[in-house]
Amino acid sequence: MLEIKALEAGYGETLILRGINLNVAEGALVAVLGANGAGKTTLNMTISGVVRPRGGEVRFAGQSLAALSPPEIVSLGLIHVPE
Ligand SMILES: Nc1ncnc2c1ncn2[C@@H]1O[C@H](COP(=O)(O)OP(=O)(O)O)[C@@H](O)[C@H]1O
Ligand SMILES: [Mg+2]
Q1: Average pLDDT over residues 68-83
Q2: What's the pLDDT tens digit per position in 7-47?
Q3: Mutational test site, ligand 1, from 7, 8, 13, 16, max ligand atoms within 8 Å of CB
Q4: Does ligand 1 lie within 6 Å of residue 34's CB atom?
Q5: Can you give 18-70 as a three-state secondary structure string?
Q6: Is 36 in the pocket of ligand 1 (CB under 6 A)?
Q7: Is residue 82 part of a domain?
Q8: At 82, is the pLDDT very low, low, confident or very high (cuts 50, 70, 90)?
Q9: What span, in angstroms and rounded, lies between the C-alpha atoms of 28 and 15?
């Protein structure tokens, strides 16, 4: 349902996400674990469209999110709930 392929994203000149691949099937619960500063929040912000991907792609229910704004991504039912 959520497919992440070769995702790259970062801030300014700094690349944080380098080649992230992750699939979440419908009905599945998936946890992303990592040390402080590993990039978990950056991954969620990139899925949400708040941080824009520099490479790779995020697809939800078969649709690429590349051209969508954060509100448009929410309207698909893909919602980031911080904390
Ligand atoms: N707005 C930002 N500008 C520049 N660097 C950032 C920003 N947000 C996070 N970072 C850096 O990105 C890296 C990953 O941070 P983050 O995604 O918050 O990790 P986590 O959520 O796993 O603790 C860290 O090195 C952090 O300092
Ligand atoms: Mg975090």
Answers
A1: 95
A2: 999 999 999 999 999 999 999 999 999 999 999 999 999 99
A3: 16
A4: yes
A5: EEEEEEECCCCCCCCCCCCCCCHHHHHHHHCCCCCCCEEEEEECCEECCCCCH
A6: yes
A7: no
A8: confident
A9: 29
Q: Letter for the amino acid at 79? A: I
Please give the tally of structural domains in the chain. Answer: 1
User: 56 is in which domain, residue-wise?
Assistant: 2-75
Question: Are the beta carbons of 38 and 26 closer than 8 angstroms?
Answer: no
| Residue 24 tokens, joined | 């979440």
Looking at residue 32, its pLDDT comes to 96
Q: How far is the centre of ligand 1, averaged over its atoms, from the C-alpha of 43 (Å)?
A: 10
**Which pLDDT score is estimated for 83?**
79
CATH number of the domain to which 25 belongs = 3.40.50.300
Closest residue by Cα to residue 19 from 34, 10, 4, 6: 6
